[in-house]
Amino acid sequence: MENNEKKLVYSVLIGLVSTEDNDRILETLDSLKNQDGDYSYEVILADRRDDEVTKRIALDYPEALIISCAGSTSLPVLRTMALERATGEYILVTEDHCVPAHDWFKTIDQAFKEAPEDTVTVGGCVENGVKDSALDWATFLTEYSFFLRPVQEGSDNPSLPGMNVAYHKSIFENLDRELLTSGFWETTVHPELIKQGKKLYSTNNITMYHCKKFSFGLFASQRFIYSRYYAGLRYDSSQVLKRMIAFGATFILPPLLFYRMIKQFRSKKRDDVDYISAIPYLFLFVFIWAWGEMYGYVFGAGDALNKIE
Predict the structure, then answer these.
(1) For the CA atoms of the chain, what is the radius of gyration?
(2) pTM over the 0.90 mark
(3) Long-range contacts of range 60-67, CB-CB < 8 Å, 24 or more positions apart?
(4) For 120, 141, 180, 261, which has the most beta carbons within 10 A of its beta carbon?
(5) Contacts (Cβ under 8 Å, ≥6 apart) of 305
């Protein structure tokens, strides 16, 4: 960690999980090194890969602490393990294929200063950092179209992207570890913070670039796995009737998802988003999405959470 006399201290938590485009993390670390302003920080990498990129990070990025983890460790557990080693006043979470804007630290600092009292979490928007093909656009839009700029500003029930978010570290002192490890924090921790009367704040100024170049096969499998995970956790295994009703309702999911996506793209009024060329892939992905949910309602989540990257 750099000099504690600097403006404020950030702990950046990242799980090393990507099986494709796995050296993108080097761009992430370079961006953190070259941030605007004078901010001290540490990077904590919870690593379930232990590959050549890990060895390169150990040699070239002394500011990064690497925690070796079992290959089956889920992302929420990886983040929790990194959190347990963090020393910063603020906890910043991103992913190993995301590259923060050059002013990421600065805009997070500004957001906490401008946000209402009792704000404990701030987040921003997600832009596409890989635009070479229609597949690149489709993989990005399937996951992150909601978080394209402009996003909702302010603290009126904002939805924050789990890979472009910052927390006051103090909030984790009163959270059960099970809450941190059982799912992604935007679905487990954020509702609990709101329940406690804390505020979450969203701003378009905090920008993260999603830069993972997926193959079709990897993205399709990841979309299926995440959908199975989501559906498998919605209802307890004893709630058979609710699971069956949800299974039946899934048949209308593809056209509904596709309609929502198109409506969302158009509402952004962005002429630089190539969603037209992505449409054939989007059709495929919404059907895979629905199939994953069907499978989850019938067979449960299984070990899906451990396979998400």
Answers:
(1) 19
(2) yes
(3) 61/29, 61/33, 63/1, 63/2, 63/29, 63/32, 63/33, 64/29
(4) 141
(5) 74, 75, 76, 183, 229
Residue type at position 111: A
Helix (H), strand (E) at residue 88: none
Helix axes 25-33, 52-60, angle to 10 degrees: 10
Could you give the CA distance from residue 76 to residue 73 in angstroms, rounded to a whole number? 8
Q: Phi first, then psi: give them for residue 47, nearest 5 degrees.
A: -115, 115
Alpha-carbon distance 290 to 251, whole Å?
Answer: 7
**CB atoms near residue 99 (< 10 Å):** 23
| Tens-digit pLDDT profile for residues 82-135 | 999 999 999 999 999 999 999 999 999 999 999 999 999 999 999 999 999 999
The interaxial angle of helices 240-249 and 275-299, nearest 10 deg, is 160
In this structure, are residues 141 and 261 in contact, taking their beta carbons and an 8 Å threshold? yes
Find all residues with CB under 8 Å of 260, minimum gap 6, and list them: none
Query: What domains can be seen in the chain, in order of their start residue?
Result: 9-210 (3.90.550.10), 216-307 (no CATH)
Instruction: Identify the three-state secondary structure at position 93.
Output: strand
